[in-house]
Specification:
Blueprint: H1 2-38, H2 47-76, E1 83-86, E2 89-92, H3 93-119, H4 128-151, H5 156-178, H6 180-187, H7 194-214, H8 219-245, H9 251-257, H10 262-273, H11 282-285, H12 288-297, H13 303-323, H14 335-365, H15 378-385
Antiparallel strand pairs: 1-2
Helix pairs in contact: 1-2, 1-4, 1-5, 1-8, 1-15, 2-3, 3-4, 4-5, 5-7, 5-8, 7-13, 7-14, 8-12, 12-13, 13-14
């Protein structure tokens, strides 16, 4: 039983270290986006890239390190419950997901550098290497949710671990969906609601998944507020980084070279709105009211209704918020566009929630309980993991 306590302590500490590394990586990604917007990119080795990939390397080393230790232990004796072997590595399913997700992120780095060399400067988040890296991050975040289920019994510590990971999961989906604001600006009409429709499926998935795993009705609002705090922190990190490094902007030349690029469009949107590129939190504010209403409806008992409420509300809120922006005055939708978007977002939200419910059940089944730690050592183990 002593070895069980040591193993549990190792996994818990690795879990929190993994989350910390991912948070630092999120700061780097947010700063990198602003760097592209206001400075331009002069090489792969810019400060936000170094920050991002240093965090990626640490996160990968932590998750792989746990697998290496567990592989060594498994070869010395009988593997503990919940340990599986994949590609000669033994470990829990959660740490396998965490590692293989980070491996995908690492693979995306050279692909991203090659992409920029071939196609030049861009800030679109929907380029193949960016989507590859974000997909890897989400696989790893799902691994984090599974690790929380594996290493903690039911209680407040497990809920805290799930919510902390859920904020990263939702925040990554926010980054994926952010680019839709430019789609609304460029195309208008029903595409004015691109953010709402994509958010209906992606955000609903994250909110319902974590709510059902954490088994707390208030989780949707907690995740939305937590992601807003993280975004404010990202802005602060970028402000400090720019103040310390004082890089020389080359963005005007990049915009002049391609006035239709995503960077140029982002600057035009900011100019019309009278804001600074990369510092707006408008898109982070929009999901808060829908998340609050989802929590009131309660996705634990009525997940279908909660999903529909979120989908309809995010259309209404995004329409009201974005429709007031001067930059979007030319792109306002018609009544028919709005009606279609409401129907589409409602269906998308239900689809996202259905996937979340099925995945939550699968994760719960895929997280076999560890051996119970003896009572005399459990307080110390819990304290070290909390």
């Amino acid at each position: 039983m002593y070895h069980d306590a040591v193993r549990t302590t190792l996994r818990r500490r690795a879990f929190w270290a993994l989350l910390a590394a991912k948070l630092v990586g999120g700061f780097g990604v947010g700063w990198d986006i602003r760097w592209h917007l206001v400075i331009g990119r002069d090489s792969f080795w810019i400060a936000p890239h170094l920050m991002t990939y240093a965090a990626v390397v640490v996160a990968a080393a932590i998750s792989l390190g746990v697998l290496v230790v567990e592989t060594w232990q498994a070869r010395r004796g009988t593997p503990p419950p919940g340990v599986v072997a994949i590609a000669a590595l033994s470990g829990t399913r959660g740490f396998h997901l965490a590692w293989w997700g980070m491996a995908i992120v690492i693979l995306a780095a050279p692909v991203d550098d090659l992409w920029h060399r071939l196609f030049g400067l861009d800030v679109t988040l929907w380029s193949p290497p960016h989507l590859l890296g974000l997909a890897g991050s989400q696989v790893s975040n799902l691994g984090g949710l599974l690790i929380a289920l594996e290493v903690y019994e039911e209680g407040w510590t497990r809920r805290a671990a799930l919510v902390a990971t859920g904020i990263l999961l939702l925040g990554t989906f926010y980054i994926v969906v952010d680019q839709s604001a430019q789609t609304a600006f460029r195309r208008g009409s029903v595409f004015f609601f691109t953010f709402a429709v994509l958010g209906a499926i992606a955000f609903t998935f994250a909110l319902v998944l974590v709510t059902r795993l954490a088994e707390r009705q208030s989780v949707p609002l907690t995740l939305a507020m937590g992601s807003l705090v993280v975004q404010l922190s990202i802005i602060l990190v970028g402000d400090i980084g720019f103040a310390l490094l004082d890089p020389t902007p080359a963005i005007e030349e990049a915009i002049a070279a391609d006035p239709t690029s995503p960077i140029a469009v982002a600057h035009e949107i900011a100019r019309r709105n009278g804001t600074i590129p990369g510092r707006s939190v408008t898109l982070r504010l929009i999901p808060i009211v829908p998340a609050a209403l989802m929590a009131i409806v309660n996705p634990l008992r009525r997940w279908q209704l909660a999903a529909v409420v979120f989908g309809l509300t995010i259309v209404a809120v995004s329409g009201g918020v974005l429709g007031r922006l001067p930059a979007m005055s030319h792109a306002l939708p018609s009544f028919a566009d709005t009606a279609f978007a409401l129907a589409l977002a409602g269906a998308a939200a239900v689809a996202g929630a259905w996937c979340a419910v099925k995945l939550a059940d699968a994760l719960a089944r895929g997280a076999p309980r560890l051996s119970v730690v003896p009572a005399q050592v459990e307080p110390a183990v819990a304290k070290s993991g909390a």
